[in-house]
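Teaching soon. Got one?

===
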Amino acid sequence: MAFAPSSNLLFNAWSLAARVKRLSALFIFALLLSLTRLTAQTNEAGSVAGSVIDQASGKPVEYATVALQPKDGTETVRSAVTDNKGAFTVENVPFGDYRAVYGHLGADGQPSAVFTVDAQHRAVDIGRLAIGDTAIKMEKFQVKTDRETFANSIDRKVYNVSKDLMASTESASEALQNIPSVQVDIDGNVSLRGNDNVLILIDGKPSAMMNSANRAMTLEQLPADSIERIEVITNPSAKYKPDGTAGIINVVMKKKHEPGYAASVRATVGNDSRYTFGASANYNPGRYNFYASLNVRQDDRPRFVQDYRSHLDPTTNTVLTTSQITVEHMRPLSRLGQLGGDYRITDADKIGVNGEYNYRTFFRTSTITNVSHDANGNLTGDYDRDRQDPEWQKTTEISATWQHSFAQEGQDLDLELKQNRHWEQEANHYSDVYRTPITPTTYDTTLIKPTETGTNLTADYSQPFAHEAKLDAGYSFETNKNDMDYRSGYLDPVSGLWMVDTTQTNRFIYHDHIHALYATFGRPVGNFGFLAGLRFEQAIIDTDQVTTAVVNKDTYVRLYPTLHLSYNLTEASQLQLSYSHRIHRPESDDLNPFPEYQDPFNLRAGNPHLMPEETHSIEAGYQYKKDNTTYLAAVYYRESYHSFTTITQYVDPVTLLPSADSLTLLTMQQNLSSSRSGGIELAVSGDLGSKITVNFSSNIYENQIDASNLGYSTNKSAIAWNAKFNMSWHATKTNMFQVNSNYTAKRLTPQGYRMPTFIANVGYKHQFNDKQTAFVLTVSDLFDSLKERTIIDTPTLHDDTTRRRSSRIIYAGFVYSFGKIGKKKKDDSMQFDDKL
């Protein structure tokens, strides 16, 4: 058993603190300056506290906005956002008579009763504010443009990405493309600030739908208009799993708890015979709440890959060249369903059950044209490798919950038991058709059948204290098993019989057990706020390479401390500082040493010696709000050891895979000696006049890697950046236009770099007079510019790979919503098909 001692944690924290000493000095200086200013302020001010709850369920409403307005006016004097228990506190409120206008993030508010802040009432508690059916009020305010695009709390940034109709044509992947700090690549893989090791949660909990095997697939299927908000947590608290060295993206789904019923139907059609269909319904007669949804998506995914490489042959000291041109096509059909309900047994207890089902099928066809030349430019090989692959993937997940609210408001106990299963089948049929040299066609097959099962039990307890202090504590246990069955065969040209290829056929079993205990404590102290936490984890990892009878067991214990600090300089500006310790554990594919034969020039294998990657992260931020404009700035630094990196190199085919070509490349994960990254992130959101809303964000960062342990130069560094721009124009009350763009600059890899990428999208929405029907039209990749180019440049290998998808994707569709819960507020965002 390996244990990371406290002294090691302190040493790393001290090292990180030294590296960001200038940042810390500026932060402390700002705090002292603000204290000096506040000391000079008048003493005629008090505070207002309270909480926001859902009228039907009685549960707290997280990230509701609360604005204090004069009794006879509409100007906002002070504002706040509720925490994860629905509570809020507004400090430095000048004496006077006020009402609180409160509501969901991005929606219109409803007023409270009038209250007074004066010398006799300096600390006013206005109690619980209930959000109920506000259909008439929201319709009156629907033409206003003072919605908040995002909010910033002590430990996360919250982005209001979708309200009803505007995201109707696209998926969650496209929604993520518009979120600052987030990138989505050609295959739907998500990265955060240039790091692809991201933990994605659904409603704050891990989900089988978001595991590494099918995360990209689920995000492509999940309709964006089913999402309430997306939370970006770059330094998560100890309450969350420490997995994901880049941080956490929490996708919060829309929920309806008001009594009554609601339903919506949406359908869109696109070019190349694409289409989507979705239906959702909710019924709540009182203590019961039932909900169901079904989403079907027919996609069309052509792919084009050009790969040119040159290799120095050490035996002859000459340069050999190869090229691969890949044309691939598939039409995935996805079905995503959900069914669930909850029942309030008593006013204090509620039970619930939820089931989800995800099924995807497609037929993949591809042709890889392989051409090889010797050092003199003579043609040595020319053939096509054809592939046919009927493939399917299934995921099921069932969860049961029990929530108990104690007599004290905010004191809660939540229990959840979740069980999931994911299985898939990939049946590849290959044929190699030769032109040079002239040889008979050869045939081979691979059958890949992984099965994953998992069980997760969590218990979360919250205890509020005086002065808005709060303790959160809990326990979680999870166990996951991945059984990877990989079979390969080839047609014997002599006997005409199919033979088992023993060099590739194998079975690998990965099994983990993780126990965790956590506690966090936070409270505001005047304008200062803090949230401190500690998480204890024991991880037991068992691997069994059944084919070779190699069994391995790894057990390790870790402590993961977290700290979040905030300080309100003024009512409009705030400083933040945070620290977290994160981990990236190797998965089954990363550890299985048997190679996967993709084509004669490419192999992929796991590394059984791969160690967990651990990261220490520090971040300081500044937020300023004025009228309808919000500015955000953050400076961050991450230091990692045993970082994962992808290494591609030529291998000896005789020792690894006899059927491989002499120019075969092997790709596998390796541990870097160390890596560091730091950067500055800026974002602004606001209105230009009464009809135009603009959002802009950018991230500039430097990445430094030490790959000396892998035989490369000791240190390598590069500066990269990306920027996103979104503009919405409300031409009339019923017509809106939108344009957004995304640019990512050149990025560093251990063996080379990735070239810049750019995409621009446009969209149009028309709201019909019935307020229930809308027409939406979107055009993705307007300039046909989206492509991904990767360069490997080492003394012995130069590889230039470019990947593209189909050009512009067009969707047009209608959405119809109805029910007796109240009409919804319009959406100010459009989602696009941004993936390659």
